[in-house]
């Protein structure tokens, strides 16, 4: 998003970029409280699935409208940040229900390892997609399409995976 704001929308100032992304950060902070309560109320798996849907919607909106207006960037960042919060809030809770007490420390550590690896690999793939095509608008569209498709994978898998399929 930072590159898109700097290159597509010609934002040279870090302050302007920060102010543009600020509503998404505030949305994530507020939603983290709501997501924690929703985990207790409706269950962690549904909060995680909702977060994945939010990430998919952010990818779809980004690929279709990400280059039209800064308002869309604010919406995209708010949706993706909210989805990320829902997913990271609920996954440790899901692990506590699946794993035994002996397995839980290893499971939480492995979850964090996968989150760090996913962050690094996702940035590397996004960076390669950004340098793939000469048209900057198409480049950013490719990144958001990639994020949309990537978000569809866990949604489809959740329909057939054990914690979701049984209920």
Outline of this structure?
The protein is mainly alpha-helical and 167 residues long.
What share of residues is helical? Answer: over 70%
Overall average residue pLDDT: 80
Architecture, according to CATH? Up-down Bundle
Q: What is the 3D shape? A: globular
Tell me, what is the CATH class? Answer: Mainly Alpha
Main β-sheet: number of strands, strand sense, barrel status? Answer: none
Amino-to-carboxy terminus distance? 37 Å
How many β strands by DSSP? 0
Q: Give the number of helices.
A: 7
- The CATH superfamily is MFS general substrate transporter like domains
Bin the strand percentage: under 5%
Task: Assign the structural class, choosing from mainly alpha, mainly beta, alpha/beta, alpha+beta, or little secondary structure.
Answer: mainly alpha
Low-confidence stretches: none
Task: Please tag this protein with its features.
167 residues, mainly alpha, Growth Hormone, Chain: A, 7 helices, 86% helix, 0% strand, globular
Describe the structure in your own words.
The chain has one domain: Growth Hormone, Chain: A, CATH 1.20.1250. 86% of the residues lie in helices and 0% in strands. It has 7 helices and no strands. Helix 2 (14-42) runs parallel beside helix 4 and helix 4 (70-98) runs antiparallel to helix 5. The longest helix has 29 residues, at 14-42.
């Amino acid at each position: 998003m930072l590159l898109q704001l700097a290159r597509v929308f010609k934002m040279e100032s870090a302050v302007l970029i920060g102010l543009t992304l600020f509503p998404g950060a505030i949305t994530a902070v507020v939603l983290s409280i709501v997501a924690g309560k929703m985990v207790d109320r409706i269950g962690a798996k549904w909060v995680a699935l909702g977060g994945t849907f939010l990430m998919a919607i952010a990818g779809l909106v980004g690929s279709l409208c990400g280059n039209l207006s800064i308002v869309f960037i604010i919406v995209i960042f708010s949706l993706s940040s909210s989805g990320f919060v829902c997913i990271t809030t609920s996954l440790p809770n899901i692990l506590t229900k699946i794993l035994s007490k002996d397995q839980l420390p290893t499971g939480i550590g492995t979850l964090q390892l996968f989150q760090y690896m996913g962050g690094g690999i996702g940035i590397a793939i996004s960076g390669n997609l950004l340098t793939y095509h000469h048209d900057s608008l198409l480049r950013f569209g490719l990144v958001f399409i990639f994020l949309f498709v990537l978000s569809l994978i866990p949604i489809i898998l959740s329909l057939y995976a054990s914690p979701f399929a049984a209920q």
